[in-house]
Every structure is written in C-alpha cells, then in structure tokens.
Amino acid sequence: GRSMGLAPAAGYEALRVHADGTQARSALLEVISEARRTIDICTFILAKDALGDEVAAALRERAEQGVKVRLLTDGVGTSLPRRFLRPLLKAGGEYARFNPIALGGLLPRFQLRNHRKIVIVDGRVGFLGGINVGDEYDESISRRASFRDTHAHVEGGVVRELQFTFLEDWHFSTNQIVRDKGMFPPPRPDETEAAIIVPSGPDQEWEAIEHVYFTAITQADEHIQLTTPYFVPDEPVRVALCSAALRGVRVELIVPRRSDSLIVTAAARSYFDELLRAGVHVYEYPRMVHAKTMVVDGKIGIVGSANLDNRSFRLNFEVSMLFYDATALAELARLFHADKQICRHTTFKSRARVGLPMRLAEASARLLSPLL
Fold first, then answer.
1. Could you give the residue ranges of the DSSP H alpha helices within 285-355?
2. pLDDT at 317 over 90
3. CA angle 6-39-316, nearest 5°?
4. Residue among 327, 250, 262, 257 nearest 296 (CA)
5. DSSP H or E segment with residue 199
6. Higher per-residue confidence, 310 vs 369
7. Which of 42, 114, 238, 358 could form a disulfide bond with 98, CB atoms 3.0-4.6 angstroms apart?
8. What is the dihedral angle through the alpha carbons of 195, 201, 205, 211, rounded to the nearest 10 degrees?
9. Among 174-188, 273-287, 352-366, which stretch is predicted with the lowest mean pLDDT?
C-alpha cells in the first residue's frame, strides 16, 4: 500500500454495515444531528427529492447552530437549483461542485467524475460506500423500485484518511485550504481493529482500488463473494477471477438481472460463458443491486464506491475501505447469502437459451467495454 501512496492501516472503535438506504438514512441523520464542529459531505448524486430535502434541512439546522458544513457534489451527477441550496448557504453552509463542465467543455475532462460517497462528522465518524442521497436508495420510500446497496459506517482514527480525501477534493473544487480545528482528533486507546482507506483516481500514478481487488482475488484460498452493479472487468481482473475458480476457490458473483444501463447489462453478460467454464458461480439479482462489496475467505472485506469496470478503476475518483473485522465480515457474508437466496443462478443451461440476437447485442456491448 505504501508504494501506491496509500496511508497505512489505522484503528477504529466501531464499524457497522448498513444493508440499505433506510438504515443508512437513519444513521446519517442521527450523526448529523449530533455534529458539534464540522460536517463534510461528498456525493455523486444529491437529488432534489424527499431524502435530499431531509438531508439538506438537517445540514441547514446544524449550520444555524454554528457547525461548519461543507457540501460537495459531482458537477455532472448532480444539478441543484439555487433555491434548493439557498437556505443552507444563508445559514452559513458552503457548497461546491466537482469538475463542472461548461457548454463546449472538453470530452476527456467530462469523463473525470467524482463518484465518491463520503460523509465525515467531527473528524471521528465516517460513512462511505455505494449509497447516494436520493429516494431510489431508500426502500421505505421507493419500495420495490429501490436499489439494494451497502454502506459502511465507521468511528475512530481511520476516519482521518477519509477526511484527507474529502479535503483534497474540496481544495480541487474551491482552491480553499481548510484549517478548521478538531478535524483530525487523536486516536483513542480502545481502537483495537484496523482498516485501510483506499482512494483512487486519475490523479494517482497507480489504480489503487483495482490493485487491491486484484491482489485480494489472487490471494484467495477458499471463497470469494463479490457484488457489483456494473461488471465490465478489464483483462487482469477477469483472468484473476477465472484463475481463482480454476484452482478450486469458490468464486461467487452477484450482479443485477437488469441494471439501470442496458448496454452495461449486455456487456456484463458477454463475460458469463467464460466465467461459467472456469467454475465461477454467477447470480442475477431481481432488482437493481448497487452494492460494491467483496469478502475473501471470511478474512478480508471491501466496501466502497468503485464498480468492477474501467470507468471506476481509471476515470472516476473513488474510495473504498479494506478491513479485517470478524464481526463486520460476518455481516457482509450474511448479506451476500441473503441476496443470493433471491437471485437467479445463471447456468450453462440458461445461457444456452440465449438467442442469436441477444448474443450479438452482448458482443456489440462488449466492444464498448473500455468506455463503460
């Protein structure tokens, strides 16, 4: 990790895994309400809907009480009217957009999106994972149409690295150097577990998140449980998964039966035949699964914002967390097993029923894989 510029493992007091947007929403609103000094939020999407309104109101209330609030959204993923932001700004909160593209902007720069979902409160409580701020992530609002997602909620010293990641993004977007007191509280003696924050993006020499996935897969001895909404792997990750299965590791992959992109769904299915021949078990979730998680041998866990595709590994600014906490790993494995129970198990027999037109569509979509 040091050779890729990553910070060393840091301790934490508590780590919880939120299995859906309803859980994450309740925890987030509670933590925001308890903030005393700073609230920093970076999200790809902040929607102007019920959940967006609720979060904006909670941030405004804290800003009115003197808490320093900074909100950063991606310049393409989010577009908010000024009237939505006015109450927060009037209360003293700050807002910035990451790499907004003006009309006629260069296409290469347009591709560089901030896909991170980070919340840091008082430098000690952090959230990261796949959940954006929007109703489709909350089952209590969107019901059957909601996304199945996973978010990590951590407290303690490792949050310092999330804070650094946010401040780099904030500086890039505003040119501000933040020097608020209390943003980096010292570690506490009861931080017995350890985790590594893994940021990745086009500003780095190495694709850190891809290297972490690749290394974890190649070191697996018994079991890999992988969930991703967009499965368009590059050759190293694809070969690593197949090689793991061929040497006897039970490799299980959950993807959505139909993602929110038809092209990505078709491209993902173009890899199924090769995976099945290698012995990988492929499961298709009945609705949109947006979680980006992996458990290896029940010993290593990853939760983050990065999909298994070229865009997340090389173009987007992403962040994941690598951890070894037995309790959190057991919860991730339990969630994977529960998800698997309602999936359709893809087999050679089901693939044989795929007609020529669909196979042509899959092959055509695969040609676009480097761009997806």
1. 310, 326-341, 348-352
2. yes
3. 45
4. 250
5. strand 193-200
6. 310
7. 114
8. 50
9. 352-366
Distance CA(197)–CA(162), nearest Å, equals: 7
- Higher pLDDT residue, 81 or 219? 219
Give the CA distances from residue 124 to residues 13, 55, 101, 111, in Å, rounded to whole numbers and listed in that order.
Answer: 10, 19, 33, 32
Which two tokens mark 319? 């962040």
In Å, what is the CA distance from 16 to each residue of 4, 87, 126, 211, 219?
Answer: 27, 32, 11, 25, 25
pLDDT of 206? 84
Average pLDDT value over all residues in the chain = 90
- Region 252-262: mean pLDDT is 88
State the pLDDT at residue 340: 97
With a CB cutoff of 8 Å and minimum separation 6, the contacts of 31 are: 119, 121, 125, 127
Strand partners, 153: 16, 127
Structure-token match 């941030």, residue found: 59
> Which residues are designated catalytic?
115, 117, 122, 290, 292, 297
46, two tokens: 């902040």
Spatial CA neighbour of 37 closest among 117, 125, 116, 97: 125
Interval 101-115: pLDDT, tens: 765 555 556 678 999
Q: How far apart are CA 199 and CA 43, in angstroms?
A: 14
Q: 292: which residues sit within 8 A by CB, 6+ positions away?
A: 129, 130, 150, 227, 228, 229, 302, 303, 304, 305, 306, 307, 308, 320
Q: What is the DSSP letter of 135?
A: G
Tokens representing residue 49 in the block: 């809907």
